[in-house]
Amino acid sequence: MQFNEVYNTGRQPANGDGMAYDFDFNCKNCVLQYSYSRNNAGFLLIMDHTYRNITRYNISENDVKFRPTHLVSMFCDTTEQNLIHNNVFYVDHGTSDLDCYYGDEYGPDRGKGRKDKGKLGANFKNNIFYATGQGRFRIVYSRGDSLNSAEYRKLEDFHEVPPPSPGTKFHNNCYFGPWFNGLPDDPEKLVADPMFVEPGSGGMGLSSLDGYKLQPGSPCIDAGVFIEMDKKRDFYGNPVKDDAIDIGIYEYSPEAR
Predict the structure, then answer these.
(1) Structural domain of residue 62, as residue ranges?
(2) Number of domains in the chain
(3) Is 15 part of a structural domain of the chain?
(4) 25-40 pLDDT, tens per residue?
């Protein structure tokens, strides 16, 4: 999936979907890249029994259309090796959740299909989480009937469950702005203003997104951890270097577009 724009999606009654993009059951080795999501009921859904799917070089802007909303909703666990890297997540109003779902399709009290909360989720690397204005990020664990809408789920704040081992889910991401209950356990985190050109200025079309380029002097330049890629280009078509890559969607150089 690439070069897409999805905006203003809704959610049908008694349905938990509504995200712009989705790795559904049994998706393996799939890639979501160079795409844009704006004002949706969420950016990405990753179901369980999905393996080695990659989400890279995408922009999510204010995907908080409904409450509760799920920026990324994850039924998967880390052993399935789903990777989310070099994306930009921007929010300037509302609370944007990274949701690890551990309930079951039979309801919270039936005792079927429960999952190990310590392993739930995907791997996040080299992403920029940018919250400004009234925007916030949050990590939650949820349980309940997965076939019903998110309003029927019980949410548990991040610190009410044992946190994962440092670096097992979040590694080398840039964080700017507030998180409810604190930042993720990221041993190589960068807490700084990434110095975007004009964050939050996205409009209609992929050509409206130059505001997420990095300015000279950004702390995200050459600060990314190496990730093997088959297509070595950023969101804007600039080549990605093999050595010191940038955090986020833009590979800065004096010649970059």
Answers:
(1) 5-204
(2) 1
(3) yes
(4) 999 999 999 999 999 9
Phi, psi of 193 (to 5 degrees): -75, 120
Which residue from 143, 50, 131, 47 is spatially nearest to 93, judged by alpha carbons?
131
Residue 203's contacts (CB-CB under 8 Å, 6 or more residues apart) are none
Q: Assess if residue 146 is contained within a domain.
A: yes
Does residue 226 belong to any structural domain of this protein? no
Q: What is the CA radius of gyration of the chain?
A: 17
Of 115, 170, 131, 136, give the one whose Cα is nearest residue 68.
Answer: 136
| Least-confidence region, from 118-122, 170-174, 184-188 | 118-122
For residue 227 the two structure tokens come to: 């990730």
Give dist(CA 158, CA 186) in Å, integer: 14
Query: In 10 A of CB 3, how many CB atoms?
Result: 9
**230 — pLDDT class (breaks 50, 70, 90):** confident
State pTM to two decimals: 0.91
